[in-house]
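Intended use. Records like the one below are meant for learning the mapping from a protein sequence to its folded structure. Do not use them to infer anything beyond what is encoded.
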Amino acid sequence: MRGPIEEIVFFGDDVRIGRFPAHTRFVYANEALAALPDFDAELRAALDRPLGAEPLEKQLGPKSRVTIAFDDPCLPVPLMLRDPRAKVVGEVLKRLFTIGIPKERIRIVCANGLHRKWSLDELKTVLGRKVVSLMAERISCHDATLDDELSFLGTTSRGHEVEVNRACVEADMLIYVNLNFTSMNGGAKSVLVGLGSWRSIRHHHGPAQWNTDASIMDPATCPMHAILAEMYPLVQKGCNVFQIETVTNNNVWPFPLDLLLAPLGSEHGRKRAGALRRTLFEAASLAPEAFKGWVRKRLVRSDYRPVAVKAGAPGPVHARTLDVLFRQQNVAVESQADVVIYGVPSLSPYSSLSDFNPILLRSLVMGYLVGLFRGRPLVKKGGVVIACNPGFEQFNERHHPAYIDFWKNHLPEYEDPVRCWEELSEPYAANERYLARYREDLAYHGAHGLINWMWSGMGLKHVSSVILAGAREPLTARKIGFIPEPDLDRAIDRALETAGRDASITYQVIPPLFCVDVA
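Structure written out for the chain above:
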């Protein structure tokens, strides 16, 4: 009889070799698409021959005003060793200067939406040192709350208000620079979320739009993307948008980490002995938690490589982006599973250059990971999810003040995600202390933590239970609605007690992130 199968499991800031029942189905990411051999040349070609638009040189003159916007450092996860947005913005600036536009007529805006603002040092991770040094006084972060910095573009037929950063409207052209490594971002979402106001964003970030009925990774069916599509004509009417989207592959780890962290069942992983890696992982796990957290924040970087870059009108550009992303990210799976297992690194978009907290853990598991699908989620309705993470209660007081207050003052009274959103989102958004911290002190918007709590709460409604394998703080696990178990073996036993001994088990081996297309 076949014995247990071993595979790598990410566990917070540690990596382990987990043992899985013999009948476990393992789902692996696609192999990384080949990187562009000459990204600079492809970028120049994209700008010379844009899709559905004239080149910059034909649309702009020396007296033009230009706003360059870019996705903030929340993505990708982890941040990149060599972010191509630095090259894109550098090439755009070069062309604007050649046209004769002085830098005093150019603004660069970080499209952070309701995310926190970022220091210039932090923005170097995206823009590079050269761009920041050249344009420092012209770089700013978007503010979703200040009326003086916003422009109201109108209301849709269904009553959705559309309001964006004033710099989008005042410029002769808004050049938006995307980095796409998942299918949830880019296209209409760029301006409407990254440069939108709270008044506008609240319409597409509620319980009706963020749930497991349709994934945010599937723009064709997701209600959030439908509202964005409804709003976007007002953006196009008020702004001249030129979009540049770079697509990356899923080559998450740089050499030599790629050899060490490749799944055992993958082509690369089979070449590396599991016993040796187990020894290395166990040795690394002995490091102090504070040190491992510092390494994660300061040193862990990805080696994603550009595989496509297109420029021009947002619609045609994003259609090309999605074609590439679906080839890279989406894996066909024959059926749903009763039990789905995830290894969960302590890496969230909203802990970028910050700290990972229990609300982010819940949203990472029951929002992002469970939501990595088109069509149907991998876990059956009423199934069980096992998440592997220690689940520490720790918060960054500077970046997540509203998260902390919600954690301390409003749980468990607001466990219900719909009630939480309906009763708390507006008061948190209007809270003067949260507004001041968001505007002036690099804090996330007051309602941002509620979005994550609501979204993950909608995911919890889909399953019978979520088991936190390796929970180090049982009370913290229970507070976020998870069942604590000391290790993966006990978590699997607990899941089978709930789902039945003959239940189907699937381990979606992450990272890298990828989506499933469930038949």
